[in-house]
Structures are given as structure tokens and as C-alpha cells.
Amino acid sequence: MPRPARPARRARPTVVESRLTGSVRIVGAGLLGTSIGLGLRARGVDVIVADASPTHISIAVDYGAGRPAAPDDHPTLIVVCVPPDVTAHVVAAELEAFPHATVTDVASVKLSVLHELRASGADVSRYIGTHPMAGRERGGPLQGRADLFLGRPWVVAAHDGISYQRGGVIDDLILDLGASLVEMTPEAHDASVALVSHVPQVVSTLMARRLTDAPGVAVNLAGQGLRDVTRVAASDPGLWVQILGANAGPVVGILKSFRSDLDRVIETLDAPEAVGARRRLAEELLGGNVGVARIPGKHGQDRRYAQLVVMVDDRPGELARLVSDIGAAGVNLEDLRLEHSPGAEIGLAEIAVLPEALAGLTEWLGERGWRIAG
Questions:
Q1: pLDDT band, very low/low/confident/very high, at 8 (cuts 50, 70, 90)
Q2: For residue 206, how many other CB atoms are within 10 A of its CB?
Q3: Which of the listed residues 20, 47, 168, 348 has the most CB atoms within 10 Å of its CB?
């Protein structure tokens, strides 16, 4: 009787060497802290996980994001990943507890944290604030991903109280995690995130609130446009109360301008047949086109992609087959969104590709039996 074949040996994952030396202590084992730990552990870095919640520590450690703290730890770098309203307090405590470590944080506001640290007399010569522009609607260690920061901007909010040599370890952290380093002042950072993150959260939330008492028949008509606008409205209210409160000034300024824009559109639509009304409305809509065109695309390029909508049968393996066929065509899939219609047994996969690849991919997929919806 022939002997059974020996199972193939699994190749050991290649550990890419880290730029960082020494241990990294992560305080706060939520989404960002766990993701940072996972990314650094993949590069062989000794990661220490600390959190006020023993459960969060256990989950992050079980996930492979690091190890629990030990009394003889001497971290080179400390990354504070806690809510904005306690960030300055925790950073100050870490600076005092580890007098030879460089300390950073990942809070989404930077100026108020720096002001609070200076007011408390903390040693800001070993502190520099950062902010990775990455995240998910849901938090907690279970949501952690080692690739969360790949290709994402990560702001370093430099100040004149820290030396270039001391801040170099922060650059190593960001590059190790595959993010794109962006240097800004704390003031410029807070003004920028008010526009690209904090105000969109408010607008998304207010739009989603309109759905609370909407008739079910109306909600059932929701398409991808509504989902796009309201996606971030599912974010944690408690966290956003802190963020918006800490960056209220810049947010209020933009919201007042937004209110003026809304008033202008309302006045136009109140008398849509008035002379010049259609032109004014068209100008408002065109302004939106111009703004969208400025949003960086993949790899940081201002590039618009061509869209292809493919009908996908609602049965196991169909979406995987579609992605496989796109790869077989030699086309890079820039983005994919899947939409289901209530009661239908198909999904609509909206595929984004480079414009020059659209015609060839459409023909290729058609030859393989895919139904092109648009």
C-alpha cells in the first residue's frame, strides 16, 4: 500500500527588517494601537501593549500585537493611542515614567494637546504629536489590521521644542508601517482635518439623521450615493464629541461657510424658474465637480477613474471569480463597491479602473459571460 504523500511544508513568513531599534510601548489597545502593534510585530519589533482595560490587552496580545508590560521595560518609543480628552494627561504620565523615551500620540487633534502639555510643565523636548489618516467606522482591538496604514498619510505635527535627532524615531515608525509621512505645524494640521475629516463627519451625521423618521419605502430606495454620504455617520458618538470639542474653532468656521452655501442653494431652488436660477444651480454643481477632482486618488495622484458596473449573481464564489477574471485581464483593480437591491438575487459591482483599461476590460468580461450594467 503506497504511503500517503507528506504534506507540503508551509513557508515561513519573511520578516522585513525594521528601521526601529529597541522596544516600542503602545498605550491604548484599540483599533489604532492594535494595528500599530500588528504592523510592527510583522517587522520583528518588540512591542509592549498597555491599556486601562485588561480585556483589551488580552485580546491585542492574543492577536499577536505585542506582549504585556513588564517591570523592567525600557522602551525607546512610546505611542499613546487613547481618546483625545485624556491624551495630554497620558502623554505627560508616560514622559515622566520613562525619562529616556520619545513619546508620540495619534490623536486627531494636535494643537490643544501640545498647549496642555506645555501648561502642565511636561518635557515636550521628548514629545511630538502625530496623526495617521487611517481608521475604520468601528473601533476596538478586534478591528485591528497590520495593513491599516499602508499608503495612508501620517502627519507629524512638529514643534520647535524637539530636536530633529529625537524626532527621527517617529519617522522610522511611520515608514515601518508603510504610511506616507507628511510634516505640518499643529495649527495647519487642525485646520486641515477640520475640512477633510471633522466637517464631513458632521455633514454625514446630519444627513443620516434625516433617515430616522423616513418612510421605509423611501429608505428601501437607497443607493450607493446615500451610502457614500452617510458611511461615516456610523462612527462612535462618544469619540466624536471629544474630537469636535477639541477642534471646535476651525470646524465652526467651515460650517458657517457651508451654511452660507446651503442658504444660497435654498434661495435658488425656492424660485427655480427665476431668471438666472438654472445657471446659478449649475455653477454650484460644477463647483462640486471641481472640488472632487482635487481629491487625491490612488498613490496620491489627482486622477479620476473610469467606472464599470457588473451584475454579479448572489451565490458563493461569484465575486471572487469576477476579481480573478479582472486580474487575468492584466487590469489593476483600483476600487470595488458592491451594492444589493432589496429582493433581488443579484448584486451590482461598481469597478474603478484606469480610463485606458475600460474598453478592453469591458470586452474581456463580456466574453466570459459577465453582464455589464453600465
A1: very low
A2: 11
A3: 47
